[in-house]
């Protein structure tokens, strides 16, 4: 499916077809390709696709390491990956985990993006990973109930990405999954400095109650399953009556 660059758009998928809804205006800078690269990384889930992509990416050497940072007395541990090649400053991508917390899935996406030439940081909101689904839901709950707390910890994580070797602090993006999709949309709503594009994959779409941004600067892409029973089609932004080109997801 060909997708035109857009200021704000949603891709709504079903089990049989993909539909692009209401593309807006072209992105007028080279960072536009980040959206497609993010999608290419995440969409390659079948074994044959992964093998083909792995062969192509294996030629680019990368460096990776854990990064510890603090929110008060809470110790957080993110995962940083970046190309070893020296050169001009590279765009950075923040990877937002789902309710399970940061694990091998997000770390793998960071490695994939680093092999594509980006500086990637898989953040950690919890400071731990729960042993059960119920425990992880409990770790997530304070952030869904207090979106200011969520944004504070996102900002701390974004600061870690900005400090990474070789990153261009003015060319940042974010991708997020489910709970992480909600987080990256909040990043766009808050106009965090340097963030140019965010991509949400089956993310929670409800805005925080304190949203007061009149214009969102970042480019936004929402990838949402049409048959996702947790978020019905009427809540998808481009079909929601409150949607407009100046106030996205609010």
Automatic annotation (TrEMBL):
Start and end residues of each stretch annotated as Disordered: 231-250
Source species, domain of life: Eukaryota
GO molecular function annotation: hydrolase activity
Positions of the Dienelactone hydrolase domain: 77-244
Entries under InterPro entries matching the protein: AB_hydrolase_fold (IPR029058), Dienelactn_hydro (IPR002925), FrsA_esterase (IPR050261)
Gene3D superfamilies to which the protein is assigned, alphabetical: alpha/beta hydrolase (3.40.50.1820)
SUPFAM superfamilies xrefs: alpha/beta-Hydrolases (SSF53474)
PANTHER family cross-referenced by the UniProt entry: DIENELACTONE HYDROLASE DOMAIN-CONTAINING PROTEIN, DIENELACTONE HYDROLASE DOMAIN-CONTAINING PROTEIN-RELATED
Official protein name in the record: Dienelactone hydrolase domain-containing protein
């Amino acid at each position: 499916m060909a997708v035109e660059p857009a200021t704000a758009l949603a891709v709504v998928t079903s089990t049989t077809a993909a539909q692009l809804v209401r593309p807006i205006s072209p992105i007028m800078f080279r960072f536009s390709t980040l959206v497609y690269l993010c999608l290419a990384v995440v969409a390659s889930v079948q074994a044959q696709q992964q093998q083909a992509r792995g062969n192509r990416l294996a030629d680019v050497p990368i460096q990776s390491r854990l990064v510890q940072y603090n929110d008060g007395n809470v110790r957080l541990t993110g995962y940083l990956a970046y190309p070893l090649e020296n050169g001009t400053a590279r765009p950075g991508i923040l990877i937002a985990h789902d309710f399970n917390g940061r694990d091998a899935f997000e770390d793998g996406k960071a490695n994939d993006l680093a092999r594509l030439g980006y500086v990637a940081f898989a953040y950690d909101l919890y400071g731990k990973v729960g042993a059960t689904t119920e425990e992880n839901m409990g770790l997530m709950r304070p952030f869904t109930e207090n979106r200011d707390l969520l944004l504070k910890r996102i900002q701390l994580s974004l600061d870690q990405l900005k400090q990474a070797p070789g990153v261009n602090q003015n060319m940042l993006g974010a991708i997020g999954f489910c709970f992480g999709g909600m987080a990256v949309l909040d990043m766009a709503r808050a106009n965090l400095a340097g963030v140019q594009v965010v991509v949400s994959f089956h993310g929670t779409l409800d805005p925080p109650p304190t949203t007061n941004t009149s214009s969102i600067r970042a480019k936004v892409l929402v990838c949402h399953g049409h048959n996702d029973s947790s978020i019905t089609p009427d809540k998808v932004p481009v079909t929601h009556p409150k949607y407009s080109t100046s106030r996205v997801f609010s």
